[in-house]
Design goal:
The protein is mainly alpha-helical. It has one domain. The chain is built from 8 helices and no strands. Helix 1 runs antiparallel to helix 8. The longest helix is centred in the last third of the chain and has 22 residues. The protein is globular and about 50 Å long.
């Protein structure tokens, strides 16, 4: 049964929250949420997003992993392929959609840097490489906060994808 756009947006948000709470890894959980919402899959994109959590490699110092993961999916769907690598205009669609996602994310959170998002949502940042701070992060509700960020970012990406009216059949697999 086909879902309405509103149902797809709701599904993306709920899957993003669920995956982040259960599996963690904001970049990978947002990729999974978007892919599963659209009933598509690419193991390479999913796997490539693995090290991007918490501002790149759990550093907090880079862009939010959910934003980066969702940007990877937009680039996967609308980006330049190898056959058009020398065409400098070929990636413009992906640039445009990732910029739109970035701007919507900034509107929501005021920043895209992981540490700054943590500070805004939880009042401070956490060094997840330090066992004590990781425990403090979990006790402070980091999973709840980050799961909402993942859900929101998945929803924003789905909205951008739906607005493009792309045919996703070429990305669908009969089984994952």
């Amino acid at each position: 049964m086909d879902l309405s756009n509103e149902e797809l947006l709701d599904k993306a948000f709920k899957l993003g929250q669920k995956y982040e709470k259960k599996c963690t890894g904001c970049a990978q959980t947002v990729v999974a949420a978007i892919f599963d919402t659209l009933d598509i899959w690419d193991e390479s994109v999913f796997k490539a997003s693995s090290g991007l959590a918490d501002g790149l490699g759990l550093t907090g110092d880079g862009a939010c992993g959910a934003l980066v993961g969702a940007s990877m999916v937009l680039s996967y769907l609308f980006g330049r392929d190898r056959a058009h690598f020398s065409d400098i205009m070929a990636p413009m669609k992906s640039y445009s959609l990732v910029k739109k996602l970035h701007d919507l994310y900034i509107e929501q959170y005021g920043t895209c840097r992981c540490y700054d998002v943590q500070k805004k949502l939880m009042g401070r940042t956490y060094n997840l490489w330090d066992q004590k701070e990781m425990q403090e992060a979990f006790q402070s509700g980091m999973l709840e906060h980050c799961s909402k960020v993942v859900g929101t970012t998945a929803k924003l990406a789905i909205e951008l994808i739906l607005n493009e009216k792309i045919n996703l059949d070429q990305y669908r697999m009969s089984s994952k």
